Amino acid sequence: MMQRWQQLVQFLKEVRTELKKVNWPLKKEVVGSTIVVIVSVFILSFFLGAIDMTLQKLLTLMVG
Questions:
Q1: Membrane-spanning residues where (predicted)?
Q2: Which of 21, 19, 17, 37 is nearest to 29 (CA)?
């Protein structure tokens, strides 16, 4: 049991050391990336919605 505890402590020390090496993004970079993702999702959803409506109308004309 004691060995397990020592392994856990060693692991957490190594995690802390590795986290210090991480190059964390600036708040400005995170906000910019988030905006790009949100805008991209909206553009793609409108594009797919337009295709869906167009295909729906075409099928209605063909069947109806």
A1: 30-51
A2: 37
In this predicted model, what pLDDT tens digit does every residue of 11-28 receive, in sequence order? Answer: 999 999 999 999 999 999
- Amino acid (1-letter code) at residue 47: F
Which residues neighbour 5 within 8 Å (Cβ) at sequence distance 6 or greater? none
Q: Using alpha carbons only, how large is the chain's radius of gyration in Å?
A: 26
Range 41-59 average pLDDT: 97
- The position carrying tokens 């167009």 is 54
3-state secondary structure 1-64: CHHHHHHHHHHHHHHHHHHHHCCCCCHHHHHHHHHHHHHHHHHHHHHHHHHHHHHHHHHHHHHC
